[in-house]
Structure formats: C-alpha cells, structure tokens
Design a protein that fits this description.
The chain is of the alpha+beta class. The protein has three helices and seven strands. Helix 2 runs antiparallel to helix 3. Keywords: Signal. This is Secretin/TonB short N-terminal domain-containing protein.
Length: about 110
C-alpha cells in the first residue's frame, strides 16, 4: 500500500509540474537576462541552446531553420531581444507569445 500512495503522489506531482511549466517559462521570458556568447552557427542549434539557456519555450516550424545560419550574439539579453539578434541576417522574425516565443517568416533578410 505505501508503494501505491507514493506512486500516486509522484504522478500528481508530475502532472502539477507539467501544468505550471508554461507559466514558469513565460515568466522567464519576461524578466530574466542571460549572458550569450554565440559565434555564427547553425540556426537550429543556436535556437535550441537559446531556449535551454533562457528557460523560454520557442515555437518554430523546423523547416524554417533548415540551411540557415544564426548571427553571432554576445552580451546579456532578455530572450526576445536575444532571439531577434540571432535571427537578424535571416528572413525570420521573433515574436512573443502567451507561452514564450515563436519564430515566423518575416521577409527578405536585412543586410
């Protein structure tokens, strides 16, 4: 019986954590600055690392990142400005969403 109660408590804790994650990610996206030191690199890798470092969920269609290079990013930024900086030489745009950030197609790359 103790095992059943313990397991039920763990399942409840996991479900509660899953429900709170979007709120925590959104809070991190609004308030925390993080130090970034990125050389130009594959955009998919840079976006994934930025999401991990910032704690911010980044929604993106993976096909938008194919064969693209992320710009160098050096300094302390909040997640949206960091992602915007990373995307500056692409046809993509970073936007804020209810659950974090998203990457969408913007138009021709800026020089």
């Amino acid at each position: 019986m103790p095992f059943a109660v313990s397991r039920a408590c763990r399942v409840t804790a996991l479900l509660t954590s899953a429900l709170l994650l979007p709120a925590a990610a959104n809070a991190a996206c609004q308030h925390q600055t993080v130090k970034y030191d990125y050389a130009p690199q594959r955009l998919d890798q840079a976006v994934q690392d930025l999401a991990h470092r910032s704690g911010c969920f980044v929604q993106v269609d993976p096909s938008l990142l194919e064969n693209k290079q992320g710009a160098a990013v050096h300094g302390r930024y909040r997640p949206l400005p960091a992602l915007t900086h990373l995307l500056r030489s692409t046809d993509l745009k970073a936007i804020k969403t209810r659950d974090g950030l998203a990457i969408i197609r913007n138009g021709p790359p800026q020089p």
